[in-house]
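Translate structure to sequence.
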């Protein structure tokens, strides 16, 4: 069923996010977001 497929997709997505959470902290410096947002239009 479609509802079961969606539930499985949500579960797979959540599992992938949780598995990678916090693993790449060294890739982004403390001012990463500030520097990124400086390029955004006001």
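Result:
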């Amino acid at each position: 069923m479609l509802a079961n497929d969606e539930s499985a997709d949500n579960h797979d997505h959540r599992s992938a996010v949780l598995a990678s959470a916090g693993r790449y902290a060294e890739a982004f410096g403390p001012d990463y977001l500030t520097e990124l947002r400086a390029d955004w239009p006001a």
